[in-house]
Amino acid sequence: TYNFSIFPKPFKTLSRQIHFETSACQFLMKFDFDFNKSFYGGITYLSETEIPALKYSDNSSCIQEIVLNNVKSEFIKRKLASLEKWCEEARPGQVDNIDCFSKGTSALLKHKIMEQFDDVIAESVLNETSLLRIRKSTKKEESTDCDSALIPLL
């Protein structure tokens, strides 16, 4: 069974409303439904009536932005913030996994980690395209990695 959290986020001229029935909310709370996960990490979507309206408006390029930029950038921001906290507490050699939910998001997050963190090694987990394994590195590891990457210019 797979569960996907969705949330109709607003974007430029597209503003949306959601309605909750109190009995439905009570049921979800009873079974520990995580509303924050849905609101903050929910997958943005467009209804069939919204697609033509956006496609032929001045914001025709925003369909891709809604799907890619809005969802992925928020996800990546949250993961980088939690990774920063993890780095403060982690010891060299300590390992953790991050589920990125897609290969593209995993590659993007890996790139951002390499840009932002000098002491974290991020690598894809074998046979798991959406899972990133992060490891707190040591200064010795970093210099070894750099040395092995050098190519003599003779």
Could you give the topology of this structure?
Elements: H1 22-30, H2 35-41, H3 50-55, H4 62-89, E1 95-99, H5 103-116, E2 120-125, E3 128-136, H6 139-149
Antiparallel strand pairs: 1-3, 2-3
Helix pairs in contact: 4-5
List keywords for this structure.
6 helices
Q: How is this structure best described in words?
A:
With 154 residues, the protein is of the alpha+beta class. Helix content is 49%, strand content 13%. The chain has 6 helices and 3 strands. A 3-stranded antiparallel sheet has the order 1-3-2, with helices on one face. Strand 2 and strand 3 form a beta hairpin. Helix 4 packs across helix 5. It is globular and about 50 Å long. The relative contact order is 0.11.
Distance between the termini: 57 Å
Largest sheet: 3 strands, antiparallel
Task: Please list the strands of the largest sheet in the order they lie side by side.
Answer: 1-3-2
Using DSSP, what is the number of strands?
3
Derived from helix and strand composition plus strand pairing, the structural class reads: alpha+beta
Q: Output the number of helix runs.
A: 6
Summarize the helix and strand pattern as letters: HHHHEHEEH
Radius of gyration, CA atoms, in whole angstroms: 20 Å
Helix content: 40-55%
β content, as a range? 5-15%
Would you identify the regions where 5 or more consecutive residues have pLDDT less than 50?
Answer: 59-66, 140-154
Shape assignment? globular
Overall residue-averaged pLDDT value: 75
